[in-house]
Amino acid sequence: MDKLTMAMELGDNENTTETRMLAYLEDAKAAIIRRLDPLGVVGVTDVPDRYAMLQVKLAARYSFRAGGEGEISHAENGVNRSWGSVNDEDLLREIMPYAKVM
Amino acid sequence: MRSLNRNEQTIYYALYTGDTEKTDATLYTGEIVPSYATPVAIRASVSAARGTSDIDLFGVNVSYNKTIIVDDLACPIDEHSRLWIGRTPTDAYGADVPHNYEVVMVAKSLNHITYAVQQVDFALPPVVSG
């Protein structure tokens, strides 16, 4: 199953279009690459297979939070939601950055 | 403020377009019929049921409201609009379905518009089986 299909299943697919989910997947990919290769010296350009599901989970989470980006809590019309973090550090800390001897 | 996508659902509204005087063979009957535009879909945050129900001498007086929040300040819904919440303006056979909510009050703020809506009791048309 491809990442888009999985993200649409796991994410908020009632409110999310495939185009938007693709954008979230790209955003998640950029976040993972930034964490994997923070200085850009190793030259990582794609998400390794072992982090594929992490990318899907991040995209699903972005989709759930659409409209509340950057917030850790949101109250609206009697519905209150709160999130643990703004930057999804709990998921990103699973990534072990690559290193290279300079 | 943006509305959280996850809190939104699709509702339909029809704007009031004016009154038309009913005629019978070119003669005015004195009856005035309000006209409404074609229903339009919009995504909005609809609250759970709010309101009060009072037992009165002559029965139960129910004032049953929901509130709707729209983050688009250009939303044209006003006190004369009709709403379809939890139902669509046309059924599976293409027949018109009566609206089930009306706007009681509009509260516009800098960030969003809140609509207080009241349920109106129009029965759904009978389901044709077979």
Provide a descriptive summary of the structure in words.
The complex is a heterodimer of chains A (102) and B (130). Chain A is mostly helical and 102 residues long. Helix content of chain A is 43%, strand content 8%. Chain A contains 4 helices and 2 strands, in the order H-H-H-E-E-H. The interface between A and B is medium-sized, with 15 and 16 residues.
The shape of chain A, in one word, is: globular
Instruction: State the end-to-end distance of chain A.
Output: 39 Å
Name the strands of the widest sheet of chain A in spatial order.
Answer: 1-2
CATH classification class of chain B: Mainly Beta
How many domains of chain A, as an integer? Answer: 1
Question: Which short descriptors sum up this protein?
Answer:
heterodimer; A: 102 residues; mainly alpha; two-stranded antiparallel sheet; 4 helices; B: 130 residues; mainly beta; Thrombin, subunit H; globular
Please provide a brief summary of the model.
Chain A is mostly helical and 102 residues long.
Give the helix/strand layout.
The complex is a heterodimer of chains A (102) and B (130).
Chain A: H1 3-10, H2 18-36, H3 52-64, E1 73-76, E2 79-82, H4 89-92
Helix pairs in contact in A: 1-2, 1-3, 2-3
Chain B: E1 8-14, E2 16-24, E3 27-36, E4 40-46, E5 50-56, E6 59-70, E7 82-84, E8 101-108, E9 113-119
